């Protein structure tokens, strides 16, 4: 189970992130689209060294080596513009919004988000145009893990994992919750019960 950062800065964010890691979070995607390189460096610098191997950078990829981060994420646009050779030794992920795009990914990508599965919790008017459970029946790429994203919360995790997704990523269900740690633990427990 993956958690994606709140796109904007929030109160006590670093201590909340540390709490998620302490509760067993495996991967934390740092997606702060409006952060400058300096702001991103300051943000990552506050995260304990022990957890940096669990971070995935969405932007300012050049900071990865400086902070000992081995994972980077490319948006669809970045992927389509070409990745270059600078990141061959990194674990790379990307975003997709159609099964055709997911199927066309090469083996460079360890996993890819496929979204939105459901109506987004965090993005207004961001809803599925097609049924991704049906679309996944056309999956031909089994080298790249497919991660469900968009509107995923405790009451639809099982459905998502039973209909072809290898894992899930959470954003709104965590950050829009008053007790995000409890929400994370509930979701994590459901994911673990669905694991083979």
TrEMBL record:
PANTHER family given in the database record: THIAMINE-PHOSPHATE PYROPHOSPHORYLASE, THIAMINE-PHOSPHATE SYNTHASE
Residues covered by the Thiamine phosphate synthase/TenI domain: 4-173
Functional pathway: Cofactor biosynthesis; thiamine diphosphate biosynthesis
Protein name (Swiss-Prot/TrEMBL): Thiamine phosphate synthase
Signal peptide residue numbers: none
One GO MF term attached to the UniProt entry: thiamine-phosphate diphosphorylase activity
Taxonomic lineage: Bacteria, Pseudomonadati, Bacteroidota, Flavobacteriia, Flavobacteriales
Keyword Phosphoprotein: no
Keywords of this entry: Thiamine biosynthesis
Domain of life: Bacteria
GO CC annotation terms, alphabetical: cytoplasm
UniProt xrefs under InterPro entries: Aldolase_TIM, ThiamineP_synth_sf, ThiamineP_synth_TenI
Pfam families: TMP-TENI
CDD domains in the cross-refs: TMP_TenI (cd00564)
Keyword match DNA repair: no
GO BP, sorted A to Z: thiamine biosynthetic process
């Amino acid at each position: 189970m993956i958690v994606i950062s709140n796109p904007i800065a929030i109160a006590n964010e670093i201590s909340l992130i540390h709490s998620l890691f302490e509760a067993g979070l495996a991967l934390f995607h740092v997606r702060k689209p409006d952060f400058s390189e300096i702001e991103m460096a300051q943000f990552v610098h506050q995260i304990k060294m022990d957890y940096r191997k669990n971070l995935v950078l969405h932007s300012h990829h050049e900071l990865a080596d400086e902070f000992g981060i081995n994972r980077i994420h490319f948006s669809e646009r970045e992927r389509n513009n070409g990745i270059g050779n600078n990141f061959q030794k990194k674990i790379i992920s990307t975003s997709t919004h159609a099964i055709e795009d997911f199927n066309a990914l090469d083996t460079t990508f360890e996993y890819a988000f496929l979204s939105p599965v459901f109506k987004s919790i965090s993005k207004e008017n961001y809803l599925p145009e097609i049924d991704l459970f049906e679309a996944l029946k056309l999956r031909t790429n089994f080298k790249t893990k497919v991660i469900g994203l968009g509107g995923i919360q405790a009451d639809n995790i099982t459905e998502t994992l039973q209909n072809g997704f290898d894992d899930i990523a959470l954003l709104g269900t965590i950050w829009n919750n008053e007790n995000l740690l409890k929400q994370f633990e509930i979701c994590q427990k459901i994911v673990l019960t669905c694991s083979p």
